[in-house]
Amino acid sequence: MDLLLIRHAQTHSNVSRALDTALPGADLTELGERQVADLAGHLADEEIDAVWCSPALRARRTAMGLAEPRGLEPREHPGLVEISAGDWEMSSDDAHADAYRDGVVAGLEGRQGPIVPGGESAAQAIARFDGAVDRIRAAGHDRVAVVSHGAMLRAWCGLRVANVPVELVRDRPLGNTGLVRLRAHGDGWMATEWDTEVVEPGGEAGPAAEPA
């Protein structure tokens, strides 16, 4: 089984640099709408059997761009939402954004407790995302696109994907509509691509080959 993990397209909260993690969340910008079209074009020739997404508006709209051309209906799962910003919800303070990012990495490195004040812990976020992936995997499809959120995708990959080290999660954030390709590997997962870069078995990332 292959998973295509995709961050949603650009939103108005991305532009204002707000920590927007609660539902329903901000809508897409005009650039975000173009990003969805570009993503759909990039993946147009790929066989995708199902599309799942976070219930956030931005994720649903991004997922629809992949599902509609294939005659599919995106399926929502609450476990795919973003890691909670807690007491800092909708804050555009750069210090809060930095602390949120650093808290995600610290959670991957084993720090216990909430990532930010009033938020959830890394263990809680990973557990709910695990539940969503288990549900998706149980459906038995060969290739599934999953539209979720930047911090959530990076955190889950850092703990659940064998060749995604914490350093990759920390140093290579996913842009809007950034894509991580995973392949089932026993009971776990291996990454083959991280946002246009090939990921080697040992976790090193390098430029993907140009298409022929």
TrEMBL record:
Domain of life according to the entry: Bacteria
InterPro entries (UniProt xref): His_Pase_superF_clade-1, His_PPase_superfam, PGM_Phosphatase
Positions of transmembrane segments: none
A matching Pfam family: His_Phos_1
GO annotation, cellular component aspect: cytoplasm
One function term, GO molecular function aspect: phosphatase activity
Protein name: Histidine phosphatase family protein
Source organism of the structure: Nocardioides guangzhouensis
